[in-house]
Amino acid sequence: MASPNARRRQRSTRITVAVALITIAALVVFSALLTGSLILVSVASVVALVLGAAATKITHSELMQSRRDAARDRAQQAQAYRDLTDERTAESKKFAETMTERISARQKLIHELEGELAAAQRKVAETTLKLGNESRRADQAQVRLSGESARLEEAEERAAEAIVAVADLEQQVTDLKAELAAWEDAAAMPVRKRA
Asked: What local confidence, expressed as pLDDT, does residue 5 receive?
C-alpha cells in the first residue's frame, strides 16, 4: 500500500491565496485596532469580512475540485477494475472452454479405448475358447495316438511272431521237402537184398 506521504496532495495555489487573504484580513484588523479609529476598525472589519468570504469561496471551490478529482480517480479506478474483471472473466471463460474441449477429447479417447478394450477382451475370450477346443482335441488325439501306438506295437509284435512262425514253417517245409526227396530217392533205388 502506498505510504501516506505519497498520497498527500500538494497544497494548491488557491489554498495558499486563501490563507494569504485571511492573514491580510487579520493584519488589517489588527492594524486598525492599533490605530484606535472606529472608522478604520469598521472598514477593516468589512475588508476582513470580504477577504474571509473570498477565502471561504476559494477554499470551497478547491474542496469541490478535489472532490471532483477524487471522484474521477475513483471512477477511473473502478473502470480499470471493471476492465480487469472483464479480462479475467474472458480468460476464465476461455480457460473453461479449453478445459471443456480437453475433457471432451479425453472422454472421447477413453470411450474409444474402452471400445477397443472390449473388442480385445472378446477376441481374447474367443481365442481362449478356441485354444480350449484345440487343447481338448489335441488331448483326444493324444489319447487316440496312444491307443493306436499300443495297437501298432501289438500288431508289430504279432507280425514279428508271424514272421518267426512263417520262417519256422518254411524251415519245416524245406526239411520236409528234403526228407521227402530223400524218401523218393530211396524209393527209386533198387532194393538190395540183404543176405
From this structure: 52
Q: What is the pLDDT of residue 1?
A: 46
Report the predicted TM-score, pTM, of the whole model to 2 decimal places: 0.43
Counted residue by residue, the chain has a size of 195
Taking 50 as the pLDDT cut, the residues of the chain under it are 1
d(CA 187, CA 180): 10
Q: How far apart are CA 26 and CA 31, in angstroms?
A: 8
Are 25 and 48 contacting, i.e. CB atoms less than 8 angstroms apart? yes
Give, in order, the Cα–Cα distances in Å from 148 to each of 64, 151, 162.
121, 5, 20
| pLDDT one-digit tens code per residue, 111-122 | 999 999 999 999
| Residue at 73: amino acid letter | D
Q: Helices (DSSP H) in the chain: which residue ranges?
A: 4-7, 13-35, 38-188
CB 49 within 8 Å of CB 5:
no
CA dihedral 147, 151, 157, 160 (to 10 degrees): -140
Residues 6+ apart with CB under 8 A from 45: 29, 32
Q: How high is the pLDDT of residue 189?
A: 78
Domain boundaries, the chain: 11-103
Q: CA distances (Å), 174 to each of 9, 29, 167, 171, 179, in order?
A: 151, 182, 10, 5, 8
- Does residue 47 contact residue 27 with C-beta atoms inside 8 Å? no
